[in-house]
Amino acid sequence: MEKLIITAAISGAEVMKENNPAVPYTIEEIAREAKSAYDAGASVIHLHARMDDGTPTQSHERFQPIVDAIKELCPDVIVQPSTGGATGMTAMERFDSTNITPTPEFATLSCGSCNFGDEIFENTEDIIKTFATEMKKKGIKPELECFDKGMIDIAMKMHKKGYLDAPMHFDFVLGVQMSATVRDLSFCVDSLPPGSTWTACAIGRAEFPIAAATIAMGGHVRVGFEDNLYLEKGVLAKSNGEMVAKVAAIAKLLGREVATPAEAREILGLGK
Predict the structure, then answer these.
(1) CA–CA distance from 144 to each of 15, 31, 65, 111, 239 (Å)?
(2) Low-confidence residues of the chain, pLDDT below 70?
(3) N or C: which end of the chain has fewer CB within 10 A?
(4) Which residues contact 244 (CB under 8 A, 6 or more apart)?
(5) pTM for this predicted structure
(6) How does 164-181 read in b/e, with b if 16+ C-beta sit within 10 Å?
(7) What is each CA distance from 259 to 1, 104, 171, 210, 214, in whole angstroms?
(8) DSSP character for 258?
């Protein structure tokens, strides 16, 4: 079984310090959390930007100094800007996170619209086509975020139409629209085209059970404050690094080694 890529979703766009005081807002705080995750075994940092008061932003002018600060502390880590941003943002406002230097090697691309709490996370086919086309021009590999099985089908349709290149990499986000169960995770994995790689994450209390199942199934894992604030029931995580370390410990118990950033690049085919 190939080595395990751990992605740390260190801040997200929704959770606040009121939910967990360790949630990072400032450039220094975000870089600190990236370093804690990297030191614990994360090879990918899934990045949302915040202003100092916690307001989410997709502005490249804010992303740039954050990425620079992360790279100063973790030179070889893979920084993966989110193009999902926050609900209510326009599509091109969300995509501005990729307009940094150097051009990101990896970024998210959400493959369909879905309910996000009381709001709609909008990703029409036109938005998906636009993002995929621009990513291809820039040489960015998309991580195809799928909140249900239908989004896998949309990604495969986009591949057939030439918008997405194979092999594709998927990220299953469980517990938002699709239930966070091993049954639904298995259904998604069984629906993938041959040669695909995949990551899974789950919201809230399902984060670590889904991480364990994913490791055993040969997939890759995402954890972090964006998805869950607790290390265990009733115990707030003090850092993203604590959560990454827990995943690394589960992987060791299950006999999987954790990938370095260089090994993650090879597995994901970045830069090819």
Answers:
(1) 22, 25, 26, 6, 26
(2) 272
(3) C
(4) 6, 8, 36, 37, 40, 41, 42, 223, 224
(5) 0.97
(6) beeebbbbbbbbbbbebb
(7) 12, 20, 17, 19, 15
(8) B
List residues bridging with 116 in a β-sheet.
Answer: 119
Tokens (6 digits) for 50? 């915040």
Nearest alpha carbon to residue 198 among 178, 181, 173: 173
Please state, in angstroms and as integers, the Cα–Cα distance from residue 120 to each residue in 24, 55, 88, 89, 267, following that order. Answer: 25, 19, 8, 11, 33
Cis peptide bond N-terminal to 167, omega within 30:
yes
> Can you give the residue ranges of every domain in the chain?
6-268
Q: How far is CA 243 from CA 13, 37, 226, 236, 238, in A?
A: 18, 8, 12, 10, 9
**Residue whose pair of structure tokens reads 């691309």 in the numeric block:** 109
Q: How many Cβ atoms from other residues are within 10 Å of residue 88's Cβ?
A: 11
Q: Give the pLDDT confidence score for residue 272 in this predicted structure.
A: 63
- Could you write out the DSSP letters of every residue in 4-48? BPEEEE-S-SS--TTT-TT---SHHHHHHHHHHHHHHT--EEEE-
Coil, strand or helix at 201:
strand
| Distances, alpha carbon 71 to alpha carbons 30, 81, 137, 221, 250, in Å | 12, 13, 24, 22, 27
Fold of 6-268: TIM Barrel (3.20.20)
Strand locations in the chain (E): 6-9, 44-47, 49-50, 56-57, 78-81, 106-110, 114-116, 119-121, 141-146, 169-174, 197-202, 220-223, 230-232, 235-236
* Cα diameter, the chain: 47
The token pair that represents 8 in the structure block: 């740390």
Which residue's structure tokens are 């092999």?
167
Cα atoms in the 13 Å half-sphere on the side-chain side of 112: 22
